[in-house]
C-alpha cells in the first residue's frame, strides 16, 4: 500500500494547467491515454511550467483519452500543425521517422536505466534531429515500461520453457520473428481478445508491462510472469515544427526546459504505477520469476538482428546503444 500512496501523492502534486483564456497562445496536446496516466500527468506538469515561465503568454491544453484521434492520426495532424503537441510511442513513429524502428528490437536495452542513459545522451539528441526532418520537434522522452512474458501453463525460467508455447503478440513482423527465434509460436491478435484466448486455451500467454498485465486482468488467467524485459519502447513528446517556429526564442527555451523537467516526473509516476501493479498481482497469487539469465535469450536474437539491422548506419547505432554505459 505504501507505493499506492506514493503514486497518489505524485499525482496529487501534478496540477492541471488547461487552456487559460488570458493566454496569448494556447497549444493543443494529444494523448491516447486517460486522465491520471503517467504520460498525461507529465504533460500537464509541463503545461504548468510553461505557463509560469512565460508569465501566461503560452498555455497548453491537454486532450487525453484519444479525444483528438488515435496515435497515428494525431502524429500526422501534428506534422501539419493542426495539433501542436503529441505524446506517442516510438513504435507508432516507425513509418514516419525510420530511426525509431531500431528501438523495437528485442533486448536492445539491458535495463530501464540503460534506456534512460541512451535517450538522455548523444543518441537521444541524434534521434531528435531525425524527428526535425519530418516536421516534428522531439521535446522529451518518456518511459513506456518493459514488456515481459506471462502465461497460464508454467514458470518460464529459460528458453527451453518457451518451446512450442503460443503467445499473443502485437501484429508486428519483429515480434513474430522474436517468438520464432525463442522456439515459441506467435499469434497476432487484438489486445481485447487476449483474456478470453488465454482462458479458453487458444493461446498459452502474452507479453506486456506490469500495468497492462494488471489493468487487463490477464493476471487472473495467466499467473506466471517472467521479467525477461525483452522490449522497452520509449515514448516521445513531439511538437509541430510549424508551431515551434511560431514561438519566440524565449518561449521555445521555456517549452524545452519544461518538457525536460516533465521527463523525470513521468518516469517517477511510471515507476510508482509499476510498483503498485506488481504488488497487486503478487497479492492475487501471481508467481513472478525475477531472476533469469538473459544471455541465452539475447544470443537467440542474432537472426532477428541480421534481418532487421542491415545498413552500416543501423549497425553503428545499435552498437553505440549497446556500448552506452
UniProtKB/TrEMBL annotation:
**What one GO molecular function would you report for this record?**
carbohydrate binding
Q: Which Pfam families match?
A: DctP
PROSITE patterns linked: PROKAR_LIPOPROTEIN
| Compartment annotation | Periplasm
Signal peptide from the UniProt entry: 1-22
Name a single GO cellular component: outer membrane-bounded periplasmic space
Whether Membrane counts among this entry's keywords is no
Query: What are the recorded Gene Ontology BP terms?
Result: transmembrane transport
The main place the protein resides is periplasm
- List, alphabetically, the CDD domains matched: PBP2_TRAP_SBP_like_3 (cd13671)
**The entry's keywords:** Periplasm, Receptor, Signal
Highest rank taxon of the organism: Bacteria
Cytoplasm among keywords: no
Database matches in PANTHER family:
DICARBOXYLATE-BINDING PERIPLASMIC PROTEIN, PTHR33376
> What is the name listed in the Swiss-Prot or TrEMBL entry for this protein?
Tripartite ATP-independent transporter DctP family solute receptor
Q: Please name the source species.
A: Rhodobacter maris
